[in-house]
Amino acid sequence: MRLDFAALGGAEAYRWMAATVTPRPIAWVSTCSADGIDNLAPFSFFQIVCDEPPTLMISIGNRPDGGEKDTLRNLRERGELVIQLVSAAQADAMNATSAPLPRGVSEFAHCGIETAPSERVAPPRVADAAVAFECRLASILPYPAEAPNHHIVFAEVLLAHIDEAVLADGRHVDPAKLDLVGRLGGAGYATTRDMFQLRRPG
Ligand SMILES: Cc1cc2nc3c(=O)[nH]c(=O)nc-3n(C[C@H](O)[C@H](O)[C@H](O)COP(=O)(O)O)c2cc1C
After folding, report:
1. What is this structure's pTM?
2. How far is the CA of 42 from the centre of ligand 1 (A)?
């Protein structure tokens, strides 16, 4: 099978890319509006992009009506975020926070997700997240430049909270204890329970 992407619409391109570029880690992102309303939403277009400065990236698509999602609006207003990773036990709660709630309604409150205060940024953390990165907004790149339908957000990590319960020997993260989920195509998800090791050559 061959797919000529020039002949595919956006929805089909998304379907094929999202079903093949898998499993994608999920950034569970807390932000806060200028008037102090917390927001929480998942994003699987998510990666590390740099270690000096330590920088993470998420890509936020437009809403179906072409407007900007609350996460992006809040980032423009406050320039701060917390990126949590999602454990298998949190999968349902994470999914619930992807509902398109009206601006002004906090997913934390709506979905009954407990908060913990952050230290360096205003948005709260997900209290039971094993990993939370407190970040400052580094930059927002509209893409594609001529008619943006996504905004790529670069976030510099200021501080990480890592639950010691997921450490193997006090220094190394044990992926089995972390037990994260990744996004597959459609409604599919994977866990990090199936693991193996490879040594790099040389
Ligand atoms: C697992 C998962 C991954 C998602 N990944 C993305 C993504 O990478 N980019 C995006 O724009 N929306 C993504 N979404 C949809 C957003 O979470 C959804 O549009 C949400 O309502 C945005 O919330 P906000 O308006 O509060 O920012 C994802 C949803 C789920 C359930």
Report:
1. 0.97
2. 5
Q: Atom 26 in ligand 1: which residue has the minimum CA distance?
A: 70
105 falls within a domain: yes
Condensed to tens digits (0 to 9), the pLDDT of residues 149-188 reads 999 999 999 999 999 999 998 889 999 999 999 999 999 9
Q: Does residue 130 fall inside a structural domain?
A: yes
- For ligand 1, say whether the CB of 27 is within 6 Å of any of its atoms: no
From atom 31 of ligand 1, which residue's Cα is the shortest distance away? 95
- Give 17-49 pLDDT, tens digit per residue: 999 999 999 999 999 999 999 999 999 999 999
Is the CB of residue 123 below 6 angstroms from any atom belonging to ligand 1? no
Query: Who contacts 26 (Cβ-Cβ below 8 Å, separation ≥6)?
Result: 42, 43, 44, 46, 85, 86, 94, 180, 181, 182, 183
Alpha-carbon dihedral 65, 67, 71, 72, rounded to 10 degrees: 150
β partners of residue 39: 31
**How many structural domains are present in the chain?**
1
Q: Which domain covers residue 107, as residue numbers?
A: 27-184
Flag whether 145 is in a domain.
yes
- Tell me, using a 6 A CB cutoff, whether residue 189 lines ligand 1: no
Give the CATH number, domain containing residue 147: 2.30.110.10
